[in-house]
Amino acid sequence: MTLWPQTLLWRSVLLIAALLVVAHLAWLQIFRASEIEPRALQAAQGDALDQALRAAAGPGFGALRWRGMPREVPLALRRTRASAGARVVPIGNAAQVLHPVAGQGFNLGLRDALSLAAAWPPSATSAALDQALARYRRGRRTDRGFTIAVTDAIARITAVDHPLAAAVRGLGLAGIDMLPPLRRRALQTLVFGVD
Protein backbone atom coordinates (compact mmCIF):
# COMPACT_ATOMS: atom_id res chain seq x y z
CA MET A 1 0.00 0.00 0.00
CA THR A 2 1.32 3.43 -0.93
CA LEU A 3 0.32 6.75 0.58
CA TRP A 4 0.67 8.63 -2.70
CA PRO A 5 -2.15 7.88 -5.19
CA GLN A 6 -1.17 6.37 -8.49
CA THR A 7 -3.75 8.07 -10.71
CA LEU A 8 -3.37 11.58 -12.04
CA LEU A 9 -6.90 12.49 -10.93
CA TRP A 10 -6.22 11.80 -7.25
CA ARG A 11 -2.81 13.45 -7.40
CA SER A 12 -4.50 16.56 -8.83
CA VAL A 13 -7.18 16.50 -6.14
CA LEU A 14 -4.57 16.20 -3.38
CA LEU A 15 -2.46 18.96 -4.90
CA ILE A 16 -5.47 21.30 -5.13
CA ALA A 17 -6.45 20.46 -1.54
CA ALA A 18 -2.90 21.19 -0.36
CA LEU A 19 -2.88 24.49 -2.25
CA LEU A 20 -6.20 25.44 -0.66
CA VAL A 21 -4.84 24.69 2.81
CA VAL A 22 -1.68 26.72 2.16
CA ALA A 23 -3.71 29.61 0.70
CA HIS A 24 -6.03 29.57 3.71
CA LEU A 25 -3.09 29.58 6.14
CA ALA A 26 -1.54 32.51 4.27
CA TRP A 27 -4.88 34.34 4.39
CA LEU A 28 -5.11 33.79 8.16
CA GLN A 29 -1.57 35.10 8.61
CA ILE A 30 -2.37 38.24 6.64
CA PHE A 31 -5.36 39.00 8.85
CA ARG A 32 -3.46 38.24 12.06
CA ALA A 33 -0.64 40.54 10.96
CA SER A 34 -3.09 43.29 10.00
CA GLU A 35 -4.54 43.13 13.53
CA ILE A 36 -1.16 43.75 15.17
CA GLU A 37 -0.66 47.28 13.76
CA PRO A 38 -3.96 48.74 15.03
CA ARG A 39 -3.34 47.22 18.47
CA ALA A 40 0.12 48.80 18.57
CA LEU A 41 -1.34 52.13 17.45
CA GLN A 42 -4.01 51.89 20.12
CA ALA A 43 -1.31 51.46 22.77
CA ALA A 44 0.80 54.34 21.38
CA GLN A 45 0.72 57.84 22.81
CA GLY A 46 1.69 61.41 21.96
CA ASP A 47 4.17 61.88 19.13
CA ALA A 48 3.81 58.28 17.91
CA LEU A 49 0.10 58.85 17.28
CA ASP A 50 0.79 62.15 15.53
CA GLN A 51 3.40 60.52 13.27
CA ALA A 52 1.07 57.63 12.42
CA LEU A 53 -1.75 60.06 11.58
CA ARG A 54 0.50 62.17 9.34
CA ALA A 55 1.85 59.05 7.60
CA ALA A 56 -1.67 57.76 6.92
CA ALA A 57 -3.00 61.13 5.70
CA GLY A 58 -0.03 62.06 3.53
CA PRO A 59 1.75 65.40 3.11
CA GLY A 60 -1.20 67.28 1.63
CA PHE A 61 -2.92 67.74 4.99
CA GLY A 62 -0.13 69.60 6.79
CA ALA A 63 0.78 69.11 10.45
CA LEU A 64 -2.08 66.99 11.77
CA ARG A 65 -2.23 66.26 15.50
CA TRP A 66 -4.08 63.49 17.27
CA ARG A 67 -6.52 64.78 19.91
CA GLY A 68 -7.36 62.49 22.83
CA MET A 69 -6.63 58.81 23.11
CA PRO A 70 -7.75 56.20 20.58
CA ARG A 71 -10.64 53.99 21.62
CA GLU A 72 -11.81 50.62 20.47
CA VAL A 73 -15.46 50.70 19.46
CA PRO A 74 -17.02 47.33 18.70
CA LEU A 75 -19.21 47.12 15.64
CA ALA A 76 -22.81 46.66 16.62
CA LEU A 77 -25.95 46.71 14.56
CA ARG A 78 -28.05 49.76 15.43
CA ARG A 79 -31.27 51.02 13.86
CA THR A 80 -33.21 54.22 14.27
CA ARG A 81 -36.81 54.02 15.37
CA ALA A 82 -38.65 56.87 13.68
CA SER A 83 -42.31 57.49 14.38
CA ALA A 84 -44.71 57.07 11.47
CA GLY A 85 -45.68 60.76 11.50
CA ALA A 86 -42.15 62.16 11.68
CA ARG A 87 -40.93 64.25 8.76
CA VAL A 88 -37.33 63.35 9.43
CA VAL A 89 -36.28 60.61 7.01
CA PRO A 90 -32.96 58.99 7.85
CA ILE A 91 -31.46 57.14 4.89
CA GLY A 92 -28.48 54.80 4.50
CA ASN A 93 -26.21 54.61 7.53
CA ALA A 94 -28.11 57.45 9.20
CA ALA A 95 -31.02 55.03 9.53
CA GLN A 96 -28.93 52.09 10.72
CA VAL A 97 -25.27 51.33 11.30
CA LEU A 98 -24.33 48.40 9.08
CA HIS A 99 -21.17 46.35 9.28
CA PRO A 100 -18.77 47.44 6.53
CA VAL A 101 -19.54 44.41 4.35
CA ALA A 102 -19.23 44.95 0.59
CA GLY A 103 -20.32 48.61 0.73
CA GLN A 104 -23.89 47.72 1.59
CA GLY A 105 -24.43 50.84 3.70
CA PHE A 106 -23.63 52.93 0.62
CA ASN A 107 -25.82 50.79 -1.66
CA LEU A 108 -28.69 50.92 0.82
CA GLY A 109 -28.32 54.70 1.09
CA LEU A 110 -28.51 55.09 -2.70
CA ARG A 111 -31.62 52.90 -2.87
CA ASP A 112 -33.18 54.87 0.00
CA ALA A 113 -32.47 58.19 -1.73
CA LEU A 114 -33.83 56.97 -5.09
CA SER A 115 -36.97 55.59 -3.44
CA LEU A 116 -37.52 58.80 -1.48
CA ALA A 117 -37.16 60.86 -4.68
CA ALA A 118 -39.63 58.57 -6.48
CA ALA A 119 -42.13 58.80 -3.61
CA TRP A 120 -41.88 62.60 -3.29
CA PRO A 121 -45.24 64.19 -4.11
CA PRO A 122 -45.55 66.70 -6.98
CA SER A 123 -47.24 69.16 -4.62
CA ALA A 124 -45.74 69.49 -1.16
CA THR A 125 -48.96 69.92 0.78
CA SER A 126 -48.92 68.62 4.31
CA ALA A 127 -51.27 65.70 3.61
CA ALA A 128 -49.49 64.72 0.37
CA LEU A 129 -46.12 64.81 2.09
CA ASP A 130 -47.32 62.64 4.99
CA GLN A 131 -48.80 60.10 2.54
CA ALA A 132 -45.62 60.05 0.45
CA LEU A 133 -43.41 59.49 3.50
CA ALA A 134 -45.68 56.71 4.76
CA ARG A 135 -45.58 55.09 1.29
CA TYR A 136 -41.78 55.44 1.22
CA ARG A 137 -41.38 53.79 4.64
CA ARG A 138 -43.65 50.89 3.70
CA GLY A 139 -41.88 50.42 0.37
CA ARG A 140 -38.39 50.37 1.90
CA ARG A 141 -39.17 48.02 4.81
CA THR A 142 -38.46 44.73 2.99
CA ASP A 143 -35.24 45.79 1.26
CA ARG A 144 -33.88 47.52 4.35
CA GLY A 145 -34.72 44.55 6.61
CA PHE A 146 -33.17 42.07 4.17
CA THR A 147 -29.97 44.12 3.73
CA ILE A 148 -29.59 44.57 7.48
CA ALA A 149 -30.10 40.86 8.12
CA VAL A 150 -27.70 39.75 5.37
CA THR A 151 -24.87 42.12 6.30
CA ASP A 152 -25.25 41.28 9.99
CA ALA A 153 -25.21 37.54 9.20
CA ILE A 154 -22.14 37.89 6.97
CA ALA A 155 -20.31 39.86 9.66
CA ARG A 156 -21.20 37.31 12.35
CA ILE A 157 -20.30 34.32 10.18
CA THR A 158 -16.95 35.76 9.13
CA ALA A 159 -16.12 36.66 12.74
CA VAL A 160 -16.02 33.00 13.78
CA ASP A 161 -12.33 32.17 14.11
CA HIS A 162 -12.31 28.39 13.74
CA PRO A 163 -10.71 26.29 10.97
CA LEU A 164 -13.90 24.29 10.35
CA ALA A 165 -15.97 27.49 10.05
CA ALA A 166 -13.37 28.92 7.68
CA ALA A 167 -13.54 25.79 5.53
CA VAL A 168 -17.35 25.95 5.38
CA ARG A 169 -17.18 29.66 4.46
CA GLY A 170 -14.66 28.88 1.74
CA LEU A 171 -16.83 26.11 0.32
CA GLY A 172 -19.87 28.37 0.36
CA LEU A 173 -18.05 31.16 -1.47
CA ALA A 174 -16.59 28.69 -3.95
CA GLY A 175 -20.08 27.29 -4.54
CA ILE A 176 -21.48 30.74 -5.25
CA ASP A 177 -18.53 31.45 -7.54
CA MET A 178 -19.01 28.19 -9.46
CA LEU A 179 -22.73 28.79 -10.08
CA PRO A 180 -23.00 31.89 -12.31
CA PRO A 181 -26.82 32.25 -12.01
CA LEU A 182 -26.58 32.20 -8.20
CA ARG A 183 -23.64 34.60 -8.22
CA ARG A 184 -25.47 36.96 -10.60
CA ARG A 185 -28.62 36.88 -8.44
CA ALA A 186 -26.62 37.52 -5.25
CA LEU A 187 -24.84 40.50 -6.83
CA GLN A 188 -28.06 41.91 -8.24
CA THR A 189 -29.72 41.65 -4.83
CA LEU A 190 -26.81 43.33 -3.05
CA VAL A 191 -26.61 46.17 -5.59
CA PHE A 192 -30.27 46.71 -6.53
CA GLY A 193 -31.99 45.40 -3.40
CA VAL A 194 -35.08 43.30 -2.85
CA ASP A 195 -38.33 44.35 -4.52
Entry summary:
With 195 residues, this protein is mostly helical. It has six helices and two strands.
What does this protein look like?
The chain has helices at residues 8-43, 47-57, 104-119, 126-159, 163-178, 180-192, and strands at residues 78-79, 96-97. α3 packs antiparallel against α4. The relative contact order is 0.08. The chain is an all-alpha fold. It has two domains: 8-61; 78-192, no CATH class. Helices cover 65% and strands 2% of the residues. Strands 1-2 form a two-stranded antiparallel ribbon. It starts with 7 loop residues before the first helix and ends with a helix.
* Largest sheet descriptor: 2 strands, antiparallel
Low-confidence stretches: none
Order of secondary-structure elements? HHEEHHHH
Helix/strand/pairing category: mainly alpha
Give the strand order of the largest sheet, numbering strands 1, 2, ... along the chain: 1-2
Share in helix: 55-70%
Give the distance, in angstroms, between the N- and C-terminal Cα atoms.
Answer: 59 Å
Integer-rounded radius of gyration? 24 Å
Kindly report the average pLDDT value. Answer: 80
Number of separate strands: 2
